[in-house]
Amino acid sequence: MKEDEDYLWPGAHRVADDVTDSAGMVQFYPTRGAVPPNLWDRLLDAATAEVGILVYVGMFLTEKPDLLDRLHKKATTGARIRILLGDRESSAVKQRSVDEGIGRETISAKIDQANAFFGSLKGVPNIEVRNHSTVLYNSVYRFDNDMIVNPHVYGKTAPMAPAMHLRKTAMYGLFNTYADSFEAVWESARESRS
User: Fold this and answer.
1) Structural domain tally of the chain?
2) Within 13 A of 80's CA, how many CA atoms are on the CB side?
3) Structural domain includes residue 11
């Protein structure tokens, strides 16, 4: 049975997580699946001002049974929660589905599931869900001044592509580059109909 290193040796990665280079790189992972599950939880728990999610689907998030409750609680304490899901009808979504070799409508169907999952948050103050039709070069998961960026690779599904844990630094760095990209997509997106 394979166990997460942080489960076996709690705190072993804590020192590495606190070290960033001048560009804001905390840790590089060979695949998104290699990001320790507890890192996602730790970053979400620590966020007090902003949580931003930019994906086409983010299906692995819908597998967290308490995620909606946690996002709702964050919003009620004043955190701004912004979720960007793909537009199921966009040509970019259809093409990504073909490029990943999973069928033209597969990602669209998964977006339907994600819209239904996050739909229960509609109307909650401080939470907005929008759909975008951009070509998604990266999935972005922001937690205040930390983020995980999942650059996409042609022919591979998102869990098989690399991931970077970034942290905002005093200098303009990688964090800012991806935060700016998130904002550009946010401005072009429309409110979710779900």
Assistant:
1) 1
2) 6
3) no
Report if residue 12 sits inside a domain.
Answer: no
Range of the domain at 81: 23-188
CA distance 141 to 98: 24
For residue 107, give the amino acid letter. I
Distance between CA atoms of residues 76 and 98, nearest Å: 40
3 state DSSP class of 180: helix
**pTM of the predicted structure, to 2 decimals:** 0.87
CATH of the domain at 88: 3.30.870.10
Q: Under a CB-based contact definition with an 8 Å cutoff, are residues 97 and 103 in contact?
A: yes
**For residue range 149-182, what is the model confidence (pLDDT) as tens digits?**
999 998 888 889 999 999 999 888 999 999 999 9
From CA 163, how far away is CA 35, in angstroms rounded?
7
Q: 83: closest CA among 131, 36, 42?
A: 131
Domain annotation covers residue 71: yes
80 located within any domain: yes
- Listing DSSP states for 66-130 in one string gives THHHHHHHHHHTT-EEEEEEE-TT-HHHHHHHHHTTS-TTHHHHHHHHHHHHHHTTTT-TTEEEE
Q: Which SS3 state, helix, strand or coil, does residue 138 take? A: strand
Residues in the chain: 194
Phi, psi torsion values for 116, nearest 5 degrees:
-65, -45
Is 9 exposed, middle or buried (CB count within 10 Å of its CB: 0-12, 13-18, 19+)? Answer: exposed
